[in-house]
Design brief:
By secondary structure, the chain is an all-alpha fold. The chain has helices at about 5-35, 40-45, 50-65, 70-90, 100, 110-140.
Length: about 140
């Protein structure tokens, strides 16, 4: 299969995932407005921002790959295989309870999602650009 088709399929899956969890978030918010205690608010507080925003950062960096060759995409794929699990581990290891942080700086998990997402996107952009420049000079 052509690598651009793979990119578009993966991009579609990530965007569908984000849209699905966004509508799930709206459902949880409306459930909380009527004070229905059967709602899973711990899911909303812990996982929903991660499940909505992390695929968006990955799909933004993936969208950038469409303009480059397959060799650049393969290098980016190796980068993403390492960086994505590190991003997820970094997000899940953030302590939420300020009492358990002690003397460390406490950050909100949502902040950590955006911070790691931006770092991931910047590193992805740099990896892709440097690889594209390297392959263009290597071919000359």
């Amino acid at each position: 299969m052509n690598y651009r088709k793979k990119i578009l399929i993966l991009l579609g899956i990530l965007l569908i995932m984000s849209v699905f969890f966004y509508f799930y978030t709206l459902d949880i918010i409306s459930c909380n407005k009527i004070n229905n205690y059967t709602c899973s608010t711990w899911v909303f507080n812990e996982l929903i921002p991660f499940l909505v925003y992390a695929p968006l950062f990955i799909s933004a960096s993936l969208l950038f790959q469409l303009i480059f060759s397959e060799r650049v995409f393969n290098v980016w794929k190796k980068f993403a295989m390492v960086a994505t699990p590190l991003m997820i581990i970094g997000i899940l290891l953030v302590k939420i309870n300020p009492v358990s942080c002690g003397i460390l700086i406490c950050v909100n998990r949502t902040f950590m999602i955006f911070f790691t997402g931006v770092i991931y996107f910047i590193l992805s952009f740099l990896t892709t650009s440097i690889t594209a420049i390297y392959f263009s000079y290597k071919n000359k």
